[in-house]
Amino acid sequence: MRHRLLLPAIVAALTAGMSxxxxxxxxxxxxxxxxxxxxxxxxxGFRGRAxxxxxxxxxxxNAVVRVGGGSGAFVSNDGLVLTNHHVAFxxxxxxxxxxxxxxxxxxxxxDRAAELPANPDYRVLVTTGFERITDRILAxxxxxRGRDYFDAIDHASxxxxxxxxxxxxxxxxxxxxxxxxxxHLVKQLELRDIRLVYAPPGSIxxxxxxxxxxxxxxxxxxxxxxxxxxxxxxxPAGYSPDNVPxxxxxxxxxxxxxxxxxxxxxxxxxxxxxxxHRMASEFEGQVEWQLPSRAALFGRMLEVIEAETADDAEARxxxxxxxxxxxxxxKRARGELDGLKRxxxxxxxxxxxxAMLAWLEGQSDAATIRTxxxxxxxxxxxxxxxxxxxxxxxxxxxxxxxxRAAVTLQRLAFERGKPDAQREPGYQxxxxxxxxxxxxQVQRRYAPAVEQALLADLVSQYLALPAGQRVAExxxxxxxxxxxxxxRIAALYAGxxxxxxxxxxxxxxxxxxxxxxxxxxxxxxxxxLQPALLRLEDEFKTHEGELLRLxxxxxxxxxxxxxxxxxxxxxDANATLRVSYGRISTLDPRDGVxxxxxxxxxxxxxxxxxxxxxxxxxxxxxxxxxxxxxGTAEPSLGTQTVNFLTNLDTTGGNSGSxxxxxxxxLIGLNFDSNWESVSASWMYDPRYKRAIxxxxxxxxxxxxxxxxxxxxxxxxxxxxx
Length: 721
What we know:
The chain is of the alpha+beta class. Helices cover 45% and strands 15% of the residues.
């Protein structure tokens, strides 16, 4: 009954008839859309010209970069990149051992010679172009269905990318906007030599750990500085001691001004994926199956890793990055489920979709659009019929190192037998440097006992599936019982030589016949699995092709309906550059509770227990006790700020996004969302959506007073105070 009473109010706030105040800050906008909403941005406090933000070749957009799996920004003219500690965590872990604990102790490069190379597949991408190419991508797809429709788009996309990448140093891609409705060519400069410059100790960069993850108030110094290098002639290149710092087209000035509640804030970055324009049935599937199953899966994987690394310090370091990723994914799944239920998202989406379909009946093309929408629903039901199997097999391959390497090597050899334009994306010539980088770093993230235990447990879950979801090739390789699986996995790993880097790299050069006939048991297993993987991929592409063909009808209806309400529509996020805007803001998450928008170092001392995750380092506690904050203190509070809260619209991938003031100066670094808004990837609820940022004043104070790096402050044009 409670949900029924709340639903009308929720729908009124989120759909038709909403006030401009509630929705003034919603949206992950493409820069090209910003002129459309210029008045809204200005009413929120923006002092620049929205049209200038739409030009990717001008500041500040050309200073914002994609970093690893997140975002970041150049903050000096010598290629210095600011991002999150957790976005750069893999780099920190890659350079750590049990005897050289950069995760725990942090790292400050005394000079450029001391900057440490990142893992070989780590990249910084600088967007240089964004061009609409819809007609070219869809030209050969008209009249086709299923796999043929998918292949037409795939072939056109690869041709565009190949043409684009004739220019050296570029990494190009085709971005799908509005679910197959529109396509854009994205041009990015690919910087491949990235080095670790400054990382605070983990007890600062991850203060509060998983206890505080997605929780406000927050007290984390979640930042790290990297540097991008290029060849002496200025072109992107792999690591070399002869390389020189990259000169970016622009860099963001770090603000030295104070910020307060109500101040304008704007974020630019590369949000991963959102699903706000999905069908009501997909919302239901997310709540009823996907999130609970994902939480259970990740929780079980963490239990296995914890048990296998309990008495092995070296293994704990090797799996630190994977564990942190799984913990974040687990908590995010639980938070997203909690948030979607709190907002009654499924019911709200049903009401909104029903109203949209009712509006559609008055449109001239209603019959055609309705037919495609119903057909898409049928395809989605087909996809859902094997979702348990598909999730387990994807996890099995994604979360192993040696098995994934063997499968990758077999697939690469298979794809090399085709002309490059016909190879599968991810296995073309343009991808081989990334594949090599992944193969080189395996031993930095792998312990035999841990991987075998993890793989055995995942296979046992697969074997428990109904017979109709089982795959003959997987049964042949791993057996049909959990006991058989453990025995066969032990034999595969006992006999393989893929744990050796030189062996993996040599196998990368072998042809398909040689690899298929290899006497290495793990390579033979991968060869046996490959027909099944190709067959499952074909099923996926057939379904995906139909959805690419059919979803645009749903989007045409949704966009038309939104426009009838006076609302602009931004595309769901897809790892392309986006901008959101809003204000530094309080939050009233429940009755009688108000969260203030600024936290201070006093909160660090209050939370400190001396044990993880609240084990603030002694230099930090001593500095707090001294109260020597200087020009970085907040005058109204008389102390040093740490984090602040805004109502900016963000999601995964926005980690490391620069937060700017009304004049484009860097005031914060995005790193998290509050618990109440974890579900924002599916549903934006203005009552709860907040983003959490590192206050740049805290970074400046740490680098000046606690773990000093005056040379880096000077490089950023900041006082060493």
